[in-house]
Design brief:
The chain is globular and about 45 Å long. The protein has about 120 residues and is mainly α. It has one domain. It is built from seven helices and no strands.
């Protein structure tokens, strides 16, 4: 793997940091906790927005590197729903992405950054 540009690395770091925050915010929490805590919902949604924005930026500065992230178009589209469709956000969908997909994304981002450090 060739060295990642500073701009691309920043986008990866931002996305990873946001994924780590979601993981920390939701640790030990249930879907019912999520539904009853508007601060938690807002925080999780905001971090997903950051992930989508960062990975959209990565796609602009390094499309090849961005192509290594599974489901990147869906991640960016999810961000767009959160930003532009805020009035109709499906809490069950957000929680499902948190439980089902976030860990794999975090693993991918961590691997990509670790490979760059070699």
């Amino acid at each position: 793997m060739t060295a990642i540009s500073p701009d691309a690395a920043k986008y990866l770091w931002d996305a990873r940091r946001a994924a780590e925050r979601i993981t920390r915010f939701t640790a030990g929490r249930t879907f019912d906790d999520y539904l009853s805590d508007e601060l938690l919902r807002s925080a999780v949604e905001r971090q997903f927005e950051i992930i989508g924005e960062a990975l959209g930026g990565l796609r602009r500065v390094d499309p090849t590197l961005a192509g290594e992230i599974p489901d990147l178009p869906r991640i960016v589209a999810f961000r767009n729903v959160l930003i532009h469709g805020y009035a109709t956000v499906d809490d069950q969908l957000v929680w499902g992405v948190t439980e089902r997909d976030l860990s794999a994304l975090l693993t991918t981002l961590t691997r990509m950054l670790a490979e760059d450090e070699r």
